[in-house]
Amino acid sequence: MYAKILVAICSAESISQRIGKLRDEELQPQLIELLKGFMRNWWIITCWNCMKLKTKSCLQ
After folding, report:
1. pLDDT in tens, 21-32
2. Is 60 strand, coil or helix?
3. Span 3-11, mean pLDDT?
4. Residue 55: which pLDDT band, with cuts at 50, 70 and 90?
5. Backbone Cα Rg of the chain
6. How far apart, in Å, are the Cα atoms of 1 and each of 12, 14, 60?
């Protein structure tokens, strides 16, 4: 029984390490790129709205 518990603990630790490695090496860079894309889109939308406001005020 004790041996089975040790094997289960080692397996859980191994899986946990693989999950951490996956998070750090693959998911985090993808998340950063996604957030950069959101920031770029918000910047474009903000600039577009500012240009629309400036054009509107010039026409009035």
Report:
1. 999 999 999 999
2. coil
3. 91
4. confident
5. 25
6. 17, 20, 84
Residue type, 44: I
For residue 52 the two structure tokens come to 């629309």
Sequence-ordered alpha helix ranges (H) in the chain: 2-22, 28-59
Structure tokens at 57: 């005020």
CA–CA separation, 51 and 45 (whole Å):
10
Tokens linked to 7: 């094997």
- Give me the torsion for CA of 22, 25, 28, 33, rounded to 10°: -130
3-state SS class at 1: coil
